Each structure stands twice: as C-alpha cells, then as structure tokens.
Write a sequence for this structure.
C-alpha cells in the first residue's frame, strides 16, 4: 500500500511527539498508555500510534519489549543491531545496556547452525538494585 502524501504529512511531527512522550514517561508503556499520555496534545488512533512506533523502532529511536508488550525510548544516541534489556519484576524499571560480545556469540552460533535470524530479543527479568536494597532494609 503506497499512499501519496505530498500535501499532508503529519508523520514526522507525530513520530517526534510520540518519541518525546516515550522519553518523558521513562518506563515501558503500551500503545494505549501512550495515547492516554498524549491525550491533551492530540487524539491519536491506535493504528497511527503503532505505525509511528514501527518507524521509530526501525530508526532505532525506540524499542519494543516483547515480554511486556510495551515500548521504550532508546537510551543510546545510536546503536546497530540488538539492544539488551534488564527488566525489574518488582518496580518495572527497564535498563538498556550494550553487550556486543553476547550478541556476537549468538550471531556466531546462528551462522554455524545455518539459522537465519530475523529478530533477536534479549531481555533479562529479575530484580533491580533499588528493589534489592529495599528488601535488605
Ligand atoms: Zn537502544
Ligand atoms: Zn525494581
């Protein structure tokens, strides 16, 4: 489906608004939570938000957390390939970190096994430092 959009192209502004909202909340949110978040600024259809998120993910400005079915803004100015996340089960804090060596090992395994990877998701679930400290008190 190719739609000519010479006159009205709200997409770039929409993407900007959405990525800014994602950065603003600072935690993983669903598309519906994003719509709520932006309610004062715009009335967005879920389809519109999903399309924007797809573009932002493709550009590396946002990531999708598979296990939470939620989205977060990327914390890095740029990175190629896979992002790695640690997700706290207690408070929901998500930490994005780079672990190129781990990703390279997995990619190497896939090459050796002749497995064509189309998507790689690395999510660690557990308890964050702050929650561990609270527990210890
Ligand atoms: Zn990232
Ligand atoms: Zn926590």
């Amino acid at each position: 489906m190719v739609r000519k959009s010479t006159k009205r192209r709200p997409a770039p502004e929409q993407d900007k608004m959405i990525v800014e909202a994602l950065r603003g909340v600072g935690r993983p949110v669903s598309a519906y939570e994003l719509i709520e978040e932006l309610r004062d600024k715009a009335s967005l259809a879920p389809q519109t938000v999903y399309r924007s998120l797809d573009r932002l993910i493709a550009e590396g400005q946002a990531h999708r957390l598979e296990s939470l079915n939620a989205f977060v803004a990327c914390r890095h100015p740029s990175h190629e390939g896979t992002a790695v996340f640690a997700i706290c089960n207690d408070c929901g804090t998500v930490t994005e970190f780079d672990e190129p060596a781990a990703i390279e090992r997995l990619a190497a395994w896939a090459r050796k096994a002749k497995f064509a990877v189309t998507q790689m998701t690395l999510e660690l679930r557990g308890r964050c430092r702050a929650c561990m400290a609270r527990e210890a008190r």
In short: The beta strands are 62-65, 70-73, 84-88, 94-97, 122-126. Residues 11-136 form a domain with the Dna Ligase; domain 1 fold (CATH 3.30.1490.190). Residues 44 and 92 are 26 Å apart (CA to CA).
